[in-house]
Amino acid sequence: MDLPVLWFAIVGLFFVGYFVLDGFDFGVGMSLPFLGKDDTDRRVLINTIGPVWDLNETWVIVAGACLFAAFPEWYATMFSGFYLALLLILAALILRGVSFEYRHQNKHLAWKRRFDLMIVVGSAVPSFLWGVAFGNVVRGIPMDSGHNYTGTLFDLLNPFALLAGATTLLVFFTHGVVFVALKTEGEMRERAMRLAKRAGVVTIVVAAVFLVTMALVRSTPASLVLSAVGAVALVVAVLCAARGREGRAFTLMAVTIAAVVLAMFTAVFPDVMPATNDPANSLTVANASSGSYTLTVMSWVALVCIPLVLAYQAWTYWVFRKRVSRATVAQAAH
């Protein structure tokens, strides 16, 4: 495996980590209106991700940094062509982070409800727009010979990209609700399991349409296999949720997200950004990558740092592995 291909795989794995981990964060945030009957319930929901949400978001920072260093042409084209969508994602993430920190600074319900709304919006907007962005990567975009995006905003809002956005929104929502069931007990856990079953059925239907459409738009043997793995994992995850096995359901939801993200990456390979107007203008792993020296240095740094990051992430989740209950949240408020 040459270095550009290796770093294409590493970038893909970082995005897998981001969507799996921040995906359930987004789902928990979107679940506030459905599972939070009162302020204590909403505090329970927020506390399930309180120790880890900011750590999960660092994955996208690392993914973006790797993209910038390993594939500067891809980074430039993607971030200039998708700048409005990415700006909205950034604004939503900022509002969401601020809301987590400030909602408890005032005891008035109106104050908390405003920040709760910002958490919901700040979770839903990135969930949808990340799907739109990656849907356009798979479908391809019009580019000139200098690899500059030549389309408009409305070209990005095509039916396939919108379907991809709806899929990521629903998958993250179901992933988050299952996580709530995994991290809570009592009535909250039961409500989360019921919601996971209902949301899971809708998610299966929309995801099936998306995966079939993606196979028709762009596919490789590897992407078809990964899509099938993701589809089976999603169905089994919903069945496990229906039987109250939230641990297995959460693991299978993570497998679903990982398989679908990898399917999208393998569907375009060896391109990284296909051109819809002229294949000669496409960005590939070869023509978008940095030089050999840069990739070599990055590889040695990654060899040292990635195991440390994974170990720290695993340790954090182990430390905060206990379930959250209304009793513990209510007691902490006094």
TrEMBL record:
Give the stretches traversing the membrane.
6-32, 76-95, 115-137, 157-183, 195-217, 223-242, 249-269, 297-320
GO molecular-function terms, A-Z:
oxidoreductase activity
Q: What class of enzyme is it?
A: oxidoreductase
According to its UniProt record, the EC number is 1.10.3.-
> Which InterPro entries does the UniProt record give?
Cyt-d_oxidase_su2
Q: Which compartments is it annotated to reside in?
A: Cell membrane
A Pfam short name: Cyt_bd_oxida_II
Membrane topology listed for this record: Multi-pass membrane protein
The UniProt keyword set, sorted, is: Cell membrane, Electron transport, Heme, Iron, Membrane, Metal-binding, Oxidoreductase, Transmembrane, Transmembrane helix, Transport
Q: What is its main location?
A: membrane
Please verify whether the record's keywords include Signal: no
Q: Which NCBIfam families match?
A: cydB
Give the family per the record. Belongs to the cytochrome ubiquinol oxidase subunit 2 family.
The protein here is known as Cytochrome d ubiquinol oxidase subunit II
